Amino acid sequence: MANLEHAEDDQNHVKMPGELPAAGSPVKPGQESCAPGGTAGAIPSFAAASELLSAPYSCLVLNNHRRHIALPPVYLNKKRTGIKEELDAELLKFSHSLHGVPLAYDNIRIATQHGDIYDDSGYVHMDIEANFIVFQPKRGQKLLGKVNKLGVSHVGCLVHDCFNASIPKPSLVSVETWRDAGPRIGTELEFKVTTLDADAAGVLLIRGQLDRTSSEPRSMQHSSLQKHIYLW
Fold this sequence. Notes:
Elements: H1 46-51, E1 60-71, H2 79-88, E2 101-110, E3 116-117, E4 124-135, E5 142-150, E6 154-159, E7 163-168, H3 175-181, E8 188-198, E9 204-209, H4 223-229
Parallel strand pairs: 7-9
Antiparallel strand pairs: 1-4, 2-4, 3-4, 5-6, 5-8, 6-7, 8-9
């Protein structure tokens, strides 16, 4: 996340450059903390998310994005806090403007010379730019997840330690084989995305299937299960 400096501004005319650099002048990043992994919803630092960009099947992209922000009056003299909280609240939630789910951001720039206050609302309106790392999986693409739930008919896994995915048991694999030689907690599972959806809160819902064209799934090493998989 960007580390922005506090500044006191005239409340009648909110001047952005006193707190943040104008458009084209990047904010120097501060120290970042990485949230604990292994739990859906854990938010990685920008540095940690950047390392995932080149990982196999990451479906992550780095985008420079411009957007409008309306800060509540309470942030009039602490706009740094307001901008950060506004962007933080949107992480790990589907964004139509970003065409995906923002995972982290950095390098915030003010895109307008001044903030505007309209009528008597008190909200400070401004445009900002930032670098966003966005999760943009598409149907048919492959993902890697770490198994965190086992069921009779499916497994649950975490993608990037942030996003829940559900993969059903292959129809030609028996329940016994699935139970005895199927995925295990903590193992990596390669799967193909079949369905993408988001709930009312913007939480991404992923459903996938084991790819019949791929080699044996990483977490399935039992020969009897391998024979079933090759029959799909």
